[in-house]
Amino acid sequence: MTGYETRLVTLRFGEHELHVRALADLQQYDDPDGRAERAGISSAQWSLFGHVWPAGCLLARAMSDHPVEGKRILELGCGLGLASLVLKKRGADVLATDHHPLAPEFLAANAALNGLPPVPYRNLDWNEPAPDLGRFDLIIGSDILYERRHAALLAPVFERHAKDYAEIVIADPGRGNSALMNRVLAAQGYAVEETRAAMAEDEVVPFRGRLLTYRRRTQ
Fold first, then answer.
1. What is the pLDDT of residue 181?
2. Where is the chain membrane-spanning (predicted)?
3. CA 49/CA 101 separation, integer angstroms
4. N or C end of the chain: which has fewer CB within 10 A?
5. For residue 37, what are the contacts with CB-CB under 8 A and spacing of at least 6?
């Protein structure tokens, strides 16, 4: 974490308490060796991975009691990896992925901060096939529909890495792109269940956030 100012945040998701080292603010940018340029991440987007976002907390809460026994789990765009850390606390078989060069460093530090063994991590560019990644029973992500194009970008990722009998859970803060994701996954045989959720403690209904659960069952 050299070159960055951080803050320690304590969070609770169900029975699980997490201590998380996050960036102190979103204005930081330190890229002396050009990792940002090589990863295609602009200076404006560089620090977004290191913030505790409401959608990330929503996904972590959902994973605090989600059925996980015997499942192989993939987190997309993990950022600080709140959901993966909660799953690791529960003894789940989880692989965290992101494309930000600092994500594995923060994830490893936060696992150690909570007395956890390292969370398996893999750099994953959604544009590039990763045939050795394999297939998963459960694929999760928070705020991964940040732009309208992301639904189409994620479609082949799900197709390549979801098992025939699979579940996808996405925590979405209501950016307006979930309907397109619903259509994309319906074409792959998934049905969606949507649960509205508050993104802030003082938020009142109708809540803007939602937990999107997609399930596919082969005949």
1. 96
2. none
3. 10
4. C
5. 31
Tens of pLDDT, residues 76-120 = 999 999 999 999 999 999 999 999 999 999 999 999 999 999 999
Spans of the chain, pLDDT less than 70: 1-2, 218-219
User: Secondary structure of the chain in the HEC alphabet?
Assistant: CCCCCEEEEEEEECCEEEEEEEECCCCCCCCCCCHHHHHCCCCCCHHHHHCCCHHHHHHHHHHCCCCCCCCEEEEECCCCCHHHHHHHHCCCEEEEEECCCCHHHHHHHHHHHCCCCCCCEEECCCCCCCHHHCCEEEEEEECCCCCCCHHHHHHHHHHHHEEEEEEEEEEECCCCCHHHHHHHHHCCCCEEEEEEECCCCCCCCCCCEEEEEEEECCC
Q: Which domains does the chain have, with CATH numbers?
A: 51-216 (3.40.50.150)
Instruction: Provide the Cα torsion 39, 213, 80, 20; round to 10°.
Output: 180
Q: What is the mean pLDDT of the chain?
A: 93
